[in-house]
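USER: Fancy drafting a protein?

ASSISTANT:
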Amino acid sequence: MKSEEKIKKLRAIMEREGIDYFIIPTSDPHMSEYVLDRYKSRVYMTGFTGSAGWAVVTKDKALLWADGRYHVQAAKEIKNTPFELMKWGLDGVPTWQEWLEEKVEDGEVIGFNGEIAPVSMLDNIKKLFPNNKLVYDKDIIGEFWEQRPELPKGKAFILGEEYTGISPTEKLEKVRERMDEEGVSSIYIASLPDICYLLNLRGSDDLYTPIVVSYLLIDRSSATLFVSENKIDQTVNGYLKKHAVKIRPYEEIVDALKSLNKEDMVWLDPNMTSALHYKLIEENANIFELELPSTTMKAVKNEVEIANTRKAHIIDGVALTRYLFWIKDNAGKIDMDEFSAEEKLHEFRSEGEGFLGESFKTISAYRANAAMAHYSASEKAHDKIKDDGIYLVDSGGQYYSGTTDVTRTITLGEPTREEINDYTLTLKGHIRLFLAKFIKGASGHYIDILAREAMWKEGIDFKHGTGHGVGHVLGVHEGPHRISTAPSSVALVPGMVVSNEPGIYREGKHGIRIENLVVVQEYKTTQFGTFYGFENLTFTPYERELIDVSILTEEEIDYIDNYHAECLNKLIHGMKTPEEKEKLKEVTKPLVRH
């Protein structure tokens, strides 16, 4: 069904239901980062495949909002459709809320699917439009969605304490301690990473995040997992029973919410709860709204998780380094494109111990495609890779021992002056951020400028965050902490894993990004307070041919030399051939200083 026909069918139902404005968010009932295929209604309607965005359809308009990461990609993907791109984040471009505020008149009706919309969205719309009727109890797009995907049916498995460092019983005890502090009787959890973290379960219900589609209710004495029973084998069932976790069918969560006690105080996170489930809880119990205790718990890794994460990054560093050697050796010599190269990287990673799969869709981007910060090649849509120009790969792996995310940019020919300058400025920002020392209580907002300062002096900037949290064998993008120009009240504390990934993007030319994962660690305590810094987790050499030593400080050069020495030490034993070992020694030699 073409986009025009889908919009026609949507408008017909809107007319039937009396809806004037229909909002299509990017979400599912679990508020997943990677929306479950069954709920990708925005992708289905618009054709835009990016991980974030909003659409609004009216009687005569069809609009798509995409942020700066996706402006170029979205424009390409919605070309020849009725959708108009709203470049969210640019001066003069209203947000979808601002646009609706300007257009919606009193008495008009706003609709959306409350099964997938978070209650925070519902609250926002209620505040903006107190005099308008809201219709959110129907899955309107589902009425005409042909060949709609089913819910995934992957099996759950146990991630043992040799990887997690702590049992479900201990984690649930910590949650109940917080429940006592807040005076609540139960907690409702729809967030799949939180559920898997608490119960030491992982699964295959998402291609990139090893989650198990489920809900979890915790009270003072028990916990109930709502999950399709065919996902739970005898071993997992016994494990859950051992830790006092009951199992009920996935669909029975509705009955459970309806049977809540009127005197119950239920803790939920409005950002991680669907509008429909919130309505059920509100009708049957009292509500306490706050970020879930599990969200903070899983953000701060324990020593066992950190030790395993270090191991995962060495395994991953070997795979990525060998892949980059292969690209440079074969570009222009064999038939190679962005998608086949991405598949080759998967082969290298598959050789690693405990490999489960990629942690997100690999960004394999050649030349101008890399200027789209979240470009995605496919079997049908890709560019050939030749022996010139810039190539960027942003990829990661899920291993039993941890989750990785790394970006490297390399040159496949004689680089231009602009490419060298852009790479070196990006590297300077990457290094300055890593070398940061910050006082206890500081959030990522305090230190973001360090990644941008050298660029800003040249009138250059990038339109994405500088760092995101990363889970442990869970989501590759994990809150609540981040490094960004956007203000944040979440302090960086020891044990938090976060990315360090500045970039420069020149539309029609090239894109450059350099990314390592780091873990916050204690630096020193003085009479002025306690200070923190970072430890590198990622080990893959930088691109020597793109480094202009003349614009680096001595401290920055020392950092690169020391980092490369660590890369050599950690990766050399993973190289498969004498040739690979020699290449590694060559690319990790100290820089020549002017």
Observations:
- The first strand starts at residue 21 and ends at 24.
- The chain has 19 helices and 28 strands.
